[in-house]
């Protein structure tokens, strides 16, 4: 089926809605090119990747006073978690009257599982509302629904959006092994999240295989990135697990500095303090080091059904 975004866009075209597609980095030609497009074509609804929102916010590529973006009524981000400061950026720098929120879906469901609803309040960093007909839950290791702590996302009941089969999986063995083996009777998506016990919103924490567990505290690398990304002097970061010979795990944070800025003990201390304030002291990676870069490699199984990401 390709990618879920193609399905979403295709259905809009069937309804006679004009769709403008942009391929590539939206600020490659100029820092304001993205806003220029919105103003020129009077775009009403934005469907953009979360990393675009995060990059525009961190780089400070904001509309000028001459830009008129009043046409924008709704903006939805997809693909990964939007950092809390991304919400401030969209509402304070783009248009205070827009409806903006992150949404969550996957290719297997061909659409959104959690999105926004005009009647539901929006809270920074959260996806506010379950989609109709999808009983998506956050469950613990035994499959029991939980709130206020890390859990895996599952679709707990049958739904018309669930896939019927996989290519060349004639008897359904691969489908059952991939999606139903971990939590029998429930469709496992493979992502971690936290359900806010007060707002009932979903905080998406990334792939379940990106989870770290340091001194008994389990957390996602995205939580660390949300804090580190508040520091302009840090160009990029990578938080990974490291194991000793006894398989004890610790978190290691690598920082790639922006040109003109330097890695030092003072910066490490400030970041550690920020992590404590935003999360807890138990979330502070045991080791924080500088890196001048890292490579990302992708490995595909021979049947093309699975992709694994490796950082080096």
TrEMBL record:
Residues 5-159 form the AMP-dependent synthetase/ligase domain. The keyword Ligase does not apply. It comes from the Eukaryota. The chain crosses the membrane at residues 6-25. The keyword Transmembrane helix applies. GO terms for molecular function: acetoacetate-CoA ligase activity. PANTHER family: ACETOACETYL-COA SYNTHETASE (PTHR42921:SF1). This is Acetoacetyl-CoA synthetase. It comes from Trichonephila inaurata madagascariensis.
């Amino acid at each position: 089926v390709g990618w879920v975004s193609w399905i979403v866009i295709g259905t809009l075209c069937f309804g006679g809605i004009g769709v403008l597609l942009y391929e590539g980095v939206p600020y490659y030609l100029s820092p304001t090119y993205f806003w220029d497009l919105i103003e020129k074509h009077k775009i009403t609804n934005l469907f953009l990747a979360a990393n675009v929102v995060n990059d525009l916010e961190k780089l400070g590529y904001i509309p000028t006073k001459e830009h008129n973006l009043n046409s924008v009524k709704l903006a939805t981000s997809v693909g990964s978690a939007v950092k809390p400061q991304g919400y401030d950026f969209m509402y304070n720098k783009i248009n205070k009257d827009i409806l903006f929120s992150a949404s969550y879906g996957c290719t297997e469901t061909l659409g959104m599982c959690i999105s926004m609803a005009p009647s539901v309040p929006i809270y920074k960093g959260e996806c506010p509302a379950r989609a109709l007909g999808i009983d998506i839950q956050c469950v613990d290791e035994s499959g029991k629904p939980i709130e206020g702590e890390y859990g895996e996302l599952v679709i707990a009941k049958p739904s018309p959006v669930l896939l019927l089969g996989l290519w060349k999986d004639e008897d359904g063995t691969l489908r059952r092994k991939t999606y139903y083996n971990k939590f029998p009777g429930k469709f496992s998506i493979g992502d971690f999240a936290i359900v806010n016990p007060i707002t009932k919103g979903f905080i998406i924490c990334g792939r379940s295989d990106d989870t770290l567990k340091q001194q008994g505290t389990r957390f996602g690398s995205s939580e660390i990135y949300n804090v580190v990304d508040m520091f302009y002097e840090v160009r990029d970061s990578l938080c990974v697990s490291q194991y000793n010979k006894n398989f004890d795990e610790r978190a290691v944070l690598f920082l790639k500095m922006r040109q003109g800025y330097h890695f030092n003990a003072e910066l490490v201390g400030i970041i550690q303090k920020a992590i404590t304030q935003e999360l807890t002291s138990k979330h502070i990676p045991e080791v924080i080091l500088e890196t001048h870069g890292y490579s990302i490699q992708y490995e595909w199984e021979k049947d093309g059904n699975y992709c694994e990401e490796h950082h080096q």
